[in-house]
Amino acid sequence: MIKHKYNATKTKIGGITFDSKLEANCFKFLGDKIVELQPSFELQPKFRDMQGNNIRAIKYIADFMILHNRKIIVIDAKGFPTDVYKMKAKMLAFHHPFLEFYAVKSVKQLKELLETL
Domain residue spans in the chain? Predict the structure, then answer.
């Protein structure tokens, strides 16, 4: 088992490696609701600065895109929300205001969320 700096343990299910046990358990819980793993959303396009340097795009990569009650929903399993995550989540909300996006801290919270939607 590999742990990273936030104490998350990489977990493998069916050939897919997840960054944490939480993410893997959410994957198992969501099952056939999953439309896409790790959907990517551009927050800022790449560009070239005044010195000619290439500046990479800024992207938000969530954990899951699901279909639930005929709606597309984006889910992120976040046990520990970092400052970078908080900033990117705000940018995501600004650039994609109609996107239904939720961060969950547990499978229980995910289950409760889906029951309310």
Answer: 33-110
